Amino acid sequence: MSQRKLVTGHPAQLSATRGRYKVWFNRHIIHGADRSWVRNITSAYTVGELSDISRRHAVTHVILEGELPPNLNTLFPQLTHLRLKSLCRNANFNSISSLRKLVVLNISGNRVFTHLFSNMFTSLLSLRELHMEGCELTTLPNSVTLLKNLQVLNVSENNLSKGLPDYMFTSLQSLRELTMRDCNLTTLPNSIFHLKNIEFLNVTGNNLSEGLRDDALAPLVSLRELHLRNCSLATLPNSIQSLQKLRNLDLSENNFTSLPSCVFTLKSLQKLDISRNNYLTSLDSGIIHMTELLTLNVQENKNLNSPPQEVCRRGINAVRQYYQDMAKGSGKNLPFVTIAVLGNTMAGKTSLIKTLQNPDRKRILTNRSPEAAKNEITKVFNIEEVEVDGIALRLIDMGGQEVYHITYQLTLRQNCIPVIVVNMQQYEQTSAESTRDEAVRKLAFDYMSHLYLANPVLGAPKLIFTHKDKFENVRFQKLKKCFLEVSNKLCKKIVEEEKALEGDFAQIQHFSKSPEGVFPRVNIYEVGIDDEYDIFDLIKKSLLESSHHFIKPLPLVWEEVNQRVMSMQSAYSTIDETLDALQAELGQIEQNQLKTILTYMHDCGKVLWYENIGSLEQYIFHKIKEVTKLLCVFYHHEQDIWQKRIEKFQPYYSEDEICIEKQDFEEFVNYFCETGLMVQSLLLYLIKTETSFSSPTDMRIAVCLLKTFRLLYGPLYEEFKEPCFIIPPFANKYFNSFDSSQKNMYLKVETHFNGLALPQYVYHQMTVGLLELFPDDFAVLHVKRNGANVYQDGIYTQLMHDYKHRKILLYVSSDAANISKMWEKIIATANNILKNVLETWPASRPVTTSFCAHCLLLGHTCPKKVLRPQWCLRSLKHQPKNVQLCSGFSTTLCNDEEIPSALIYPCGPLSRDEAHSIKEHVNQLKQNSFNDNGKPQQVVKTQMEDDNMSECSDVEEEGYADFTKDDLEPFISMVDGMKLRPTNNERVRQLFDDHRQVYAMSDPVRGRVMIINIERFFRDDGSELTKATRDGSYIDYVNIKTLLKDMGFVVANEDDPLFDLSKQEILSEVRKETTHRDHKDLGMFILVIMSHGTSGNIFYDKYCKPVNLSEVKDLLSASKFPAMRGKPKLIIFHACSGSRADFGNAVQSQSPDTVSPPTPTPLPSSSATAGSESSAGQHVSPNIHFDRFTHLDADDFYIVKPSTETYKAGRNENYGTWFIRILVATFYRHSCHRDVSELFRIIQDRVRRVSIAYCKKTGDEAAGGNVPNCQECTFTHLRKLFFFPKFHGRQLPQ
User: Phi first, then psi: what are they for 1252, rounded to 5°?
Assistant: First the structure.
């Protein structure tokens, strides 16, 4: 009986697991690559079972993982393809050398082969492919030379720095592909250059700075692909001319200053990559003769002058056109650059430009007072020219108001020099109102995002500080230093975040490569003093120097075309109209030639031509100021602009008919201001009367321009007879939340944008982008300022965006039977929105999370999540492919409950039975989770859900009443092994930078902590009160010190702990701490006091002298501790508030082990601090200190104590106090995602429950039965205090 193959072309994978091997089979084969072995788990077999399979079937493809069977050659005698993965270091390789039929062997990624035995391949004479990538080899075994049938060899990523013998490849004349990438080679073996049949050679990443021998490449006449990327080459050998079959040549990331002329002789070359050669200054006209060349990559060559990079971006045809036109005559040098001047309104941008333009070298200030004859505030943007040394530099003065930001996208280019203007008065004010970080973001980084997110290759920005005359120089320099420090810190966070993210994102090169920070010192200027005119000369000189790279010679015909186009009178013209006009004046000009010239003009900011936008590619807008007027119709900073339009209304006529009456005009305006919907007749009226787009054709083009940039959407029909257009930023109503009370199930996806913040208008464009996905007239649309929803074909889709928290939420809802269509809809919608964002903003950092529909339906506050699901778009270079779809009957686990997989993972089309099964499951959930009114019932949450993604479990949460002393010891000791983890809760992560809701935390050091522990007590004569010793308090000290250090705090006097101090020493140490210089840069302060005490917030020093907590607190007030003014101050005050032990009705006794200190003398009223109650209960008149009328002395305190008034606080001599121990455990578990008030509510409940249960079980009355409480909370501006342990900004979990 003939054998039939079990896996003809289908590999099986074996993995040793307790004497058994798992077997996988593949369904998709890609020849010769590791990815050809795709796992598909079936079952596990013993060696005996596999031997039986081998006897009945010819197994040909196998993957082995872990241990190697010693009898592999007898187990699979027909084996032809073998892949070894994750091998053990003691693996036995002897059986491999006996596989005589082996054709493909892949041992890549195994780092156990540092030295392969020399005869390993002696018997593998049938081998055609050998892959040894990343094996940490230092040489190759000699037996490789015997593989005369070998066609593919890959030895990349091995440390072959000692070199290889010259004879290594001499006998391998069948070799077709050789890859030696990143092998630390400095020379290549001579035998490589005698491989006459080799077609593919890749030696990328080897330091070949000494170059290749001049005749080295001559014998390689069959070579079709040659990869020499990152080889430190500056020249090529002339023998490359022999490679007349070469199709692909990669010379990127080398040191060429010009393209070697020998390359032009490669007549068959189709693809040439010379990108990222930082010394490359020019190509050569010889490239014209490379007639077969289809692809030319010259990206990121910073010093390339000829041809201009604007030409190179259009590809090889544009480069040929440039050299052909240059051959006919060259003109003068002209700048190919736009200087973008950005900053907040009133920053001084327009004044700066006017001063730079002024030949009298005098500072000019714009007049913006309401009484001025002409208000000079910038509307949308202005384009101005500044002449420096005979060269006209083109500056764009961008309007600073938020409403104008949406128009920036029309003019900003890749060849742009950013200039950021910062008003230091605004910086000081914004810092006082929020934080310094927030001020820098608002005044600088939010404007830089318009530039760097769209063009991540831009160079360093200029930074100009204005209004210097409003400050004394010392104050100004201090603000400047602070601004730059915060800028560099924010930049560092963004770079670290980029490194933490997976995916091939476009990095902001200046941020990651600048050694001097965001703003290099030479690019920083200060203006504002009338007598300092020289500073403006320096600014002009600096702008000219930065522009030199963009000042390049142009063909003469290009200059002539530029002049003719700019002189055209109309606001726009078509390509054909422009071509006809130019041909009439200049003679023969081809359309492709004109398009190349227009690319240059567009990139220089001279015209607007959107070649890649289908609806606009035929139109050239020569008058950019006319486009500015068009945008100004809708985006205007004046609050009363619409009322003025109503008052000045004048009807216009079309064919002797009034197009719109005043009454209708007023009605339409009011409707637009209320809903964001603009009736078509109102839209056309505004375009007609306020812009130069006056004819019907002009107005159609104007509407097309606005729609193309997603500034409006339409037409659609509402309550009026004529169509309307949606302009989302002007809608007044908001979506508060998604209506989860509906009985349909729904899917939810959230995308957060990390890195630099996306401009706010991008979120409105996402709304328009959603609407564009539903062109059907039968779709029902609702648009609000923060999103839109659409109902079509039984499926409800809603987008909500939150600019403040930098995220969008996408919901899709329908009947459960439509779940496959719901998945299809939400995947297509989410990826379409992300694609639109990434195409325009390639350096943005979207991170997508999908949520479990089962949890959502049950109303869980913390549903199961899938971070960055397989189906979501992560970057334009990594499109989701081959998304695995689950079936309708497959199940998975969610919170230990078995549910249909389709509620978490995408599913394909379902059969009727599959759809019915899912619908039945959902209907059952509805019955359990919805009441008669259709509203979700209160769901009993697990502790994990209630804690919003706690990273640790709570072993003491349940069953307190059952604890015994032995049971409790593991709980007590586990404090030592706890670890803090940064929160994964996106809601909490977003609060880190939201300083309107939470106190700002400094990073990486959160603050300083001072721990005072009075453990031993003494009489006046110096003798010790041994019975008063607070045994176990040192354990508290160690626990709380360890916790706070882990949380990012610096412990004061750690080398000399503050133990057993007198009252005078306590107050002196606290006073000394308040003067520490680090506090000004830190976010908060913590004081821990542990001692004996009594009622009235009194504790005792080491001599049993009473100290009132208010005396200590007064030293921490805003007036006496100015470095912590406006910052939170936490006081953990551990001392008894009396001598009573609270055991309810069960126990009422004093612990025999507890010895109270001497009863203190009542404090005289004069010692009471201002604003506190005296011991007699009489109120003392407060002495309130004000700091610029913004801070009170009592502000920003949070004081907690371990027991209520008159009650004692429990302590155990072996484990410390209940309060501190549970505080430490609770902070370790929950401080990552809970604020301080929530934490102490948890502590309060746990101390009470644990101490009562412990006392009942053990009879240890010394522990006490106490209830901690918050003594005082004076947090300001309704802010909360989060500690954010281990969290350093918006980084993602690995």
Answer: -65, -45
Q: Is the dihedral of CA 726, 732, 736, 740 positive or negative?
A: negative
What's phi and psi for 858, nearest 5 deg? -80, -10
Do residues 304 and 280 touch, judged by C-beta distance below 8 A?
A: yes
CA distances from 423 to 9, 384, 429 (A): 69, 21, 10
Alpha-carbon distance 1234 to 618, whole Å? 57
The three-class DSSP label of residue 951 is: coil
Q: Give the predicted TM-score (pTM) of the model.
A: 0.63
What mean pLDDT value characterizes the chain? 78
Please compute the mean of the pLDDT values over residues 1196-1200 and round it to a whole number. 91
Tokens linked to 1083:
């976010």
Helices (H), 514-555: 534-547
CA angle centred on 649, ends 647 and 654, rounded to 5°: 175
Q: Strand 780-784 to strand 787-792: parallel, antiparallel, or no bridges (unpaired)?
A: antiparallel
Of 322-331, 464-473, 832-841, the least confident: 322-331
Q: Which two tokens stand for residue 90?
A: 């003691």
Say if residues 470 and 440 touch (Cβ distance below 8 Å): no
Selection from 273-287, 371-385, 393-407, 1164-1178 with the highest mean pLDDT: 273-287
Q: Starting at the edge strand that comes first in sequence, how are the strands of the sheet with 713-716 ordered? A: 677-679, 724-726, 713-716
What secondary structure letter does DSSP report for 407? G
Task: Please tell me the distance from the alpha carbon of residue 1206 to that of residue 1081, in angstroms, as a whole number.
Answer: 39
| Helix or strand (DSSP H, E) at 225 | strand 225-227
Element (H, E) at 1201: strand 1197-1201
pLDDT in tens, 1091-1120: 988 888 888 899 889 999 989 999 999 889
Q: Give, to the nearest 10 degrees, the angle between helix 1236-1258 and helix 965-973.
A: 150
Largest Cα span, the chain:
113
Query: H/E/C letters for each residue in 82-140?
Result: EEEECCCCCCCCCCHHHCCCCCEEECCCCCCCCCCCCCCCCCCCCCCEEECCCCCCCCC
Tokens of 767: 């709304």
DSSP string, 849-916: EEE-HHHHHHT-SS--EEES-TTS--BTTB---SPPPBPSS-EEEETTEEEEGGGTS-B----HHHHH
